[in-house]
From TrEMBL:
One of its GO terms (molecular function) is DNA-binding transcription factor activity. Residues 1-119 form the HTH marR-type domain. This is HTH marR-type domain-containing protein. It comes from Streptomyces griseorubiginosus. One of its GO terms (biological process) is response to stress. SUPFAM superfamilies: Winged helix' DNA-binding domain (SSF46785). Gene3D superfamilies: Winged helix-like DNA-binding domain superfamily/Winged helix DNA-binding domain.
């Protein structure tokens, strides 16, 4: 699935790390790259490279933290939000295709079970509560 995801995201000129960064900044404006790394389980170096590429493309913007000069906050730009939406739709389509071999009740069961496991192992990787019913495409 990871290979399929990487291949599909290439059509949007995104890596999986960039996709995860875009989604997390969209959900949590002002988040730092270090926090994204913790939430996604990626190295700070990989996350930093992904964020730098997104900033260079004008999809994310950096701004100073109001009380901590060492922390840089990230915000998503309008073009970044549009690309994040397109990427989310693409990932949802991939998920639908991958789960098509299962009956609807099995799809619901596996989705619920995977969310429970993720909530236990890394709850910060999940999108805000109101998005959890939809497939987020982010781990």
């Amino acid at each position: 699935m990871g290979t399929r995801l990487e291949r599909a995201l290439r059509s949007l000129d995104l890596t999986a790390a960039q996709h995860n960064a875009l989604q997390h900044v969209g959900w949590t404006p002002g988040i730092s790259a270090a926090e994204i790394a913790r939430r996604t389980g990626l190295t700070p170096q990989s996350t930093g490279a992904a964020v730098n590429a997104l900033v260079d493309r004008g999809l994310l913007a950096r701004c100073e933290h109001p009380s901590n000069r060492r922390t840089v906050q990230l915000t998503i730009t309008d073009s970044g939000a549009k690309l994040a939406d397109r990427a989310r739709e693409l990932v949802e389509r991939l998920d639908t295709e991958a789960l098509a071999v299962l009956a609807p009740v099995e799809q619901a069961a596996i989705h619920s079970l995977l969310l429970r496991v993720l909530a236990e192992l890394n709850p910060d990787a999940l999108p805000p509560q109101d998005l959890r019913g939809a497939d987020s495409g982010v781990a």
